[in-house]
Amino acid sequence: MKKNVETFIGCDCEYEEAQIVIFGAPFDSTTSFRPGTRFASHAIRSESFGIETYSPYQDKDLTDIRVFDAGDLELCFGNTEKALNQIQNMVSEIYQDQKTPCMIGGEHLVTLGAVREAARRYPNLHIVHFDAHTDLREDYLGEPLSHATVIRRCHDILGDGKIYSFGIRSGERCEFEWAKEHTHLTRFDFCGLAEAVRAIGGAPVYFTLDLDILDPSEFPGTGTPEAGGVTFLQLLEAIRAVGTLNIVGMDINELSPIYDPSGRSTALACKTLRELLLAVTH
Q1: Which of 40, 44, 86, 230 is least enclosed by beta carbons within 10 angstroms?
Q2: Is 6 within a domain?
Q3: Domains in the chain: how many in total?
Q4: Average pLDDT of the residues in 32-60
Q5: 29-33, 128-132, 202-206, 276-280 — which is least confidently predicted?
Q6: Are 255 and 44 in contact (CB under 8 A)?
């Protein structure tokens, strides 16, 4: 696997040495409101050089861990299933080489491609899901593959009791009612996260972070902003808690940089990715 020309800051080790492999999934073909997440991975790499490799929050440095940046996949925009297959194939290659995938979306549907492969490799897979939206619709305008249905499609694979969602503050009534029977859903914030971490224990976990969990006053650069979100510091604390789990795959998604010309949303995404990489590396 070849190193990307422009890498995320501090993530430039050789593939053979890497613990974690970053790759971009610039796909937003099913976005229901404002498209533009396909530009996120490029923006995050470019703007990452505005931050430091060192985290004063965790007293760790990206230069202390081994991360390889493989660049972006060339995804098919005319065929959603084909794009998901391309993502799954990439994750499969990373797992085959005994490394941990870290995907930069793209819209949230890209998670499904990675989870399909993670679940194939890890039969007892759990998902920890940070988001403003339930993403539990059976379909969106008749289409079962959408960023509004991604967690429902993941449930189709994993079954009941293995999905833990936090920060949820938007969705149809039927989604919240369905979640009571089939998933663990926490509204508005991270209450109960410590209990969830204990319940999950040593089970393999895929962590998916939709950045619109953040309040749009801090993170306006997203396609579906929702008022009432968490703060950046609350998110960092929650990421550190998740980092104690057995993380076998992860993604960060739904940055849409074109909706924030100030650049602060991209800068926030860069810092969040740095903290995530450091939190899951023990």
Answers
A1: 86
A2: no
A3: 1
A4: 93
A5: 29-33
A6: yes
Three-state DSSP class for residue 72: strand
3-state secondary structure of 81: helix
Whether 182 is in a domain gets the answer: yes
Give the separation between CA 132 and CA 170, rounded to whole angstroms: 6
Q: Which CATH number characterizes residue 57's domain?
A: 3.40.800.10
In the numeric block, which tokens belong to residue 225? 């902003």
**Hey, is 248 helix, strand or coil?**
strand
DSSP β-ladder status, 204-210 and 54-55: unpaired
Report the mean per-residue pLDDT for the chain: 95
27-56 mean pLDDT? 90
**Amino acid letter at 236?**
L
Contact between 120 and 113 under an 8 Å Cβ cutoff? The reply is no
What is the pTM assigned to this prediction?
0.96
- The 10 Å Cβ neighbour count of residue 196 is 19
